[in-house]
Amino acid sequence: MRLGLLLAIVLVLGLYTQAAEINTNKFGSLEVVTETEHTIEKEIYFSEDSIVHDHVVRAQHQKDSLDQAKVNMQKMVERRIDKCEDSTFPADDDFQFLPVFVGSLVNDSQTIEYEGTCFKSLTLKMEHLSTDSVKVTVNARNKASTFCREALFMSTTLRHHVEYLFFEKTHTLVFKNLDEDDIIDLNLTGVKTYLFCHGVVDSFVSVFNTVKLFLGGLGANPKYPIIGSHVPEYMEKANVHFVKEALGWEMEKRDVTEVVLDESEIHDGDFLAITRLDGLDEIIMWGTGGRVGHSTVALHIDGELNIIESQDAWYWPKHKIQRNPYKQWIQYAKNCDFHVSVLPLKDEYREKFNNTAALEWFESVEGMPYGYHNFLFSWVDTEDENLPPTLPKQFVPVAFEMFGELLPGVMETFFLQAMNHRLNTTGLNFKQVVSEAAKRDTNLSELMAQPELDGWMYSDGYSYVCSCFVIGVYKAAGLFGDMELNAVEFTPKDLYQLNVFNTTAVLPEKCKQADPDLPFCQILGKYRMSMPGYSTIEPYAHMNEHCASAAPEFIRPEGC
Ligand SMILES: [Ca+2]
Ligand SMILES: [Ca+2]
């Protein structure tokens, strides 16, 4: 009896105690939640770091991406990838997944009223609390059905938050840790709010974080100095797990982590293939099905061995298309925990390699920026067989339109200039590109699938990402004779699968001792590199312009 009473008291206390719950959300912010009968109060502490520099957030993002991919693959099977989970929507409404712009809160006197998909009455208000915090109050009323949920995506230029609404309550969100830039931005453009139906927002957040990771991971942000470019061990482990789950590649640890090659053992045209276990290379691998994230090539300049490359990673001390003497380069490579293998050209290609012509071409592009403009297009070759499993095809234009709003400059850089080249137009904005495409009886997906062409001039020069740059060097050096190839269509996987490398080279004894089964010499890295299909695809005209690369099999159609 007493025990029963005690239990009842504990239960009642448990129900009424306003215990705060603390979580980290998908954007890496800390959330402190207190719930009462009529309100849900949340304090959101934005993290100081971005996803790019915060290894913990990045490791979590990888885990979320895998989980999301599993959910999406199941949904694809059931043909409900782009559907709300709320059954009040008509099942045949193709557009129900689209996010809706609700409004932008710019000042404290404004109230936004909106009819949601789940809550028939939503009102939003903002209040500046101090120099580093604002409060947004969301009143959710008149629920359409018992189990429906709604998601609000709230965003300033730099800060992002998703709030799920389930209870008919007043939700107060206090955004903390805002800095001066945030407040200026907030006063200018406000807190933009989009409404998603539940079940779709998670896909969007996953894609959104991936895009942010790419942007920051590839470009240097002066706000973040290079403090330490080593990859921490837990990040390494998270990546080893990721590639196993996403690519089915079980990475093996090596006993030897460095093999010192003499400079005389590296020749002009040798391809130095690189993998870094940092969460960015692995996303590239997931998209392309390759096992290499970065590509560089050896070239003697004035008798000295140099490594030349197109590089813009935040952890690398130099940017853009560049040369570094090998001695210097290998030091940089060790500092950022690169895995590096040297893939030697076949003798016949080594003979063909014209150092003077290669150098002349290199000097004509040296200092040009990394190829952000066509970054996507070496990999995207088809309408819907290149996208990672987290990204439904219909989401592409929606995502780009939202990125255009939320991440200024992104759409222009990653998308619009390349689309204008395909249409042979200049300066068309997103809506104009869409309408111009429609006039010509085509659409965005078809345009994106059209081949990227060497020689297209972008606003800041030619655009070569790492693997395209290496093929550019090979092309200039005469490896392909007068065969017509577009270097800008080659992913790192396309590069190492090209049948120009010597698979039966007599490797130095030290290489064989470190990795007895590898057909090339791995000079750096804790884990053994692996390149299925290494040097197997004979070069042919216009290769790699129409290749599917869908996970998890990543089958390369013959002649694509
Ligand atoms: Ca392409
Ligand atoms: Ca391609």
Structural commentary:
- This protein is of the alpha+beta class.
- The chain folds into 3 domains: 18-218, no CATH class; 233-371 and 491-524, no CATH class; 395-449, no CATH class.
- The protein contains 16 helices and 17 strands.
- The protein has helices at residues 2-16, 55-77, 180-189, 201-218, 233-247, 281-288, 326-335, 347-352, 355-365, 395-406, 410-423, 430-439, 444-449, 466-476, 492-497, 509-514, and strands at residues 21-24, 30-35, 39-45, 100-105, 111-114, 119-130, 133-143, 150-155, 160-165, 170-176, 191-197, 271-275, 294-301, 304-311, 320-325, 339-343, 521-524.
- It has a 7-stranded mixed beta sheet with strand order 1-2-3-10-7-6-5, with no helix packed on it. A 6-stranded antiparallel beta sheet has the order 15-14-13-12-16-17, sandwiched between helices. Strands 4-11-8-9 form a 4-stranded antiparallel beta sheet, with no helix packed on it.
- A hairpin with a 2-residue loop joins strand 13 and strand 14.
- The longest helix is centred in the N-terminal third of the chain and has 23 residues, at 55-77.
- One calcium ion (CA) is lined by residues 377-378, 380-381, 451-452, 489.
List keywords for this structure.
3 domains; binds calcium ion; globular; 32% helix; 16 helices; seven-stranded mixed sheet; alpha+beta; six-stranded antiparallel sheet; 560 residues
